[in-house]
Design a protein that fits this description.
By secondary structure, the chain is α+β, with helices and mostly antiparallel strands. Helix content is 24%, strand content 27%. The chain has one domain. It has 7 helices and 9 strands, in the order αβαβαβββααααββββ.
Length: 203
């Protein structure tokens, strides 16, 4: 992965795509009052952000990917999909309209960023150890570079937990007018939404 400064320079001219559709998110039931809050990622960090830097709303392309990402499901030694005992969870469907997505599920950008799929899904170096030492992992450095450009609203990335899945790392603070995320609940019980307020700097 390039240095932060070189990543920003590359990302300034990176092609972006739009995404309109559904993504999925698993949260502890105790947080049902604010299902789109990203305060947890701000406090503890995540694959694409370090603690205290900026918030990221992590979502997935399917319920299966979302459950794998939070370790609610795993593959055992016999290759079978298993569940794990957990406190109650909510599996959310989110309706998304995103206009400025950097798609890293395709290798087209990997060479320009000096990265690879293997690096994007790597479990090492541990972000917990790296952050405790005041360092960023390569993916956290990439997330910071994307956030600092100011013109990327989300990343579409390969899932580290589900080889056939992908995830969206959404930057709530970077959403522009016309971008929108809402909880899908036809019963009207769970209601939460995020709407972009920034003007598009590109017009």
């Amino acid at each position: 992965m390039h240095t932060l400064e070189k990543l920003i320079a590359v990302l300034e001219r990176a092609p972006l795509v739009s995404y309109t559709g559904f993504t999925f998110r698993v949260i502890p039931d105790r947080w049902r009052i604010s299902p789109l809050s990203a305060i947890g990622s701000l406090d503890r960090g995540g694959r694409y952000n370090s603690p205290g830097a900026f918030s990221v709303l992590y979502t997935a392309d399917s319920q299966l990917t979302a459950l794998r990402e939070v370790d609610a499901l795993f593959i055992d030694r016999q290759g079978k999909l298993r569940g794990a005992p957990r406190n109650p969870d909510l599996v959310l469907t989110l309706k998304c309209a995103l206009l400025r997505v950097l798609d890293l599920t395709s290798p087209d950008m990997h060479a320009d960023l000096d990265t690879s799929r293997e690096e994007l899904i790597a479990l090492t170096p541990s972000r917990f150890l790296a952050n405790a030492r005041g360092r960023l992992t390569p993916t956290q450095r990439l997330g910071l570079a994307c956030f600092r450009t100011g013109h990327i609203s989300a990343l579409k990335v390969p899932s580290a937990a589900h080889s056939d899945g992908s995830c969206f790392a959404i930057f709530p603070e970077s959403l522009i007018v016309g971008e929108h995320i809402a909880v899908h609940d036809e019963n009207g019980i769970l209601q939460d939404e995020l709407s972009g307020r920034l003007l598009n700097p590109l017009g």
